[in-house]
Write a structure and sequence with these properties.
eight-stranded mixed β-sheet; Butyryl-CoA Dehydrogenase, subunit A, domain 3; 3 domains; 10 helices; Butyryl-CoA Dehydrogenase, subunit A, domain 2; about 15% strand; alpha+beta
Length: about 375
């Protein structure tokens, strides 16, 4: 597929509408939204952050954010999986420790076949690795290659992924910890369909089991010894994540806002004799929502323009997500019962936007880090 380097505003609007037409169906079934990814592949958007010299779109952060916002406004589950695709390709093609042949292989798979990749990190026993600890997933070194065994939960995209970047540790005396690259067709992989969440249901974030899975030794693509650990994300990758992840939920809030505006202009109670939009209290609610979305736009625009330092990345994620949740909550309060009816999209938007809270970093981590930094500065 020829990558869509710079999709126009009208093209992105059409994409939003096409994805929105599938959103309710996939939310109810909680199945992987294959139709949506077939559409994105036809537009060349699954390889949008693959470097141009490898056939991709070579998109920068600003361009990637525009696409993520348009996709997520139509279907945020599709948008979240696409965020992971974009982040993993950006990281792989900038990392010095990835073998060149593997970088080229995942790039070719994305360009030619629309292959998806994501990192599988969370485990049943440990939980999120961002709070410390070593993975229970172990790669045993053998003459044939690594033998990988372990379980991963909350594996976003599971059924639709071609490549799993599995966070694990080696069985060496000084373990190597990091990402082991596994192709989905490798024997020993099974998916347990246990994802049944309130929102973002079509992300298919199921549990994935690896039982003595054999991979080549050079598929330990981003590992480091426990006695000399490397940071998982450099400052640029951290900024990409802190922009694209909350952009998904900001787009949900935009969709909720548009639904409410349409509802208020169309709903004309017989005792009022005019649309609800004529009442000052509803006008004020729309104004509050638009102000929250304006704040989000300003925050995200500033970040992609390079005006946000890396140490503020967590605060950026927290602020945009919190504003999105408040905006959708205001829309539900204004709509009343129709806002919570499964016949209307606003109910789905409300469930989806609440999922922004669970993404790393969570609020307590963001506020603790900001507080420690402020106090350390004063003490210094």
């Amino acid at each position: 597929m020829k990558p869509m380097s710079h999709p126009s505003g009208s093209a992105l609007a059409e994409l939003t509408q096409a994805l929105a037409a599938n959103a309710e169906r996939y939310d109810r079934s909680a199945r992987f939204p294959q139709d949506n990814f077939d559409l994105l592949h036809r537009h060349g958007l699954l390889a949008y952050t693959v470097p141009r010299h490898l056939g991709g779109g070579g998109a920068d952060l600003a361009s990637a954010r525009r696409v993520i916002s348009a996709v997520s406004k139509g279907d945020p589950a599709t948008g979240l999986i696409l965020v992971m695709q974009y982040l993993q390709h950006v990281r792989a093609h900038r990392a010095a420790d990835w073998p060149e042949r593997l970088r080229h292989r995942i790039a070719r798979d994305a360009v030619e076949h629309g292959a998806l990749i994501n990192a599988l990190r969370v485990e049943p026993e440990l939980g999120t690795p961002t709070r410390g600890g070593l993975p229970a997933t172990v790669a045993r070194r053998t003459a044939q290659g690594w033998r990988l065994s372990g379980r991963k939960i909350y594996s976003t995209g599971s059924h639709g992924l071609t490549w799993f970047l599995v966070w694990g540790r080696s069985d060496d005396a000084v373990p190597l910890v990091g990402g082991f690259l596994v192709h989905r067709d490798t024997p020993g992989i099974s998916i347990v369909e246990d994802w049944d969440h309130l929102g973002m249901r079509a992300t298919c974030s199921h549990q994935v089991h690896f039982e003595d899975v054999l991979i080549p030794l050079d598929h330990a693509v981003s590992v480091s010894p426990t006695n000399a650990p490397k940071a998982e994300l450099d400052e640029d990758s951290l900024l990409w994540m802190s922009v694209l992840l909350p952009a998904v939920y900001d787009a949900v809030a935009q969709a909720a806002r548009d639904w409410l505006v349409a509802f208020l202009t169309q709903r004309t109670p017989s005792n009022l004799g005019a649309p609800l939009a004529s009442l000052p209290r509803f006008q004020q609610t729309i104004g509050r929502i638009d102000t929250l979305l304006f704040a989000n736009q300003s925050l995200l625009d500033g970040a992609v323009a390079g005006h946000t330092a890396a140490h503020h990345a967590g605060q950026l994620k927290q602020l945009v997500s919190a504003n999105a949740i408040e905006a959708v909550t205001l829309a539900v309060e204004a709509a009343g019962n129709p806002g919570l009816s499964r016949h209307n999209a606003l109910e789905r938007h409300y469930r989806d936007v609440l999922c922004s809270r669970i993404h790393t970093p969570q609020d307590d981590v963001v506020f603790s880090q900001a507080g420690r930094a402020a106090l350390a500065q004063v003490q210094a």
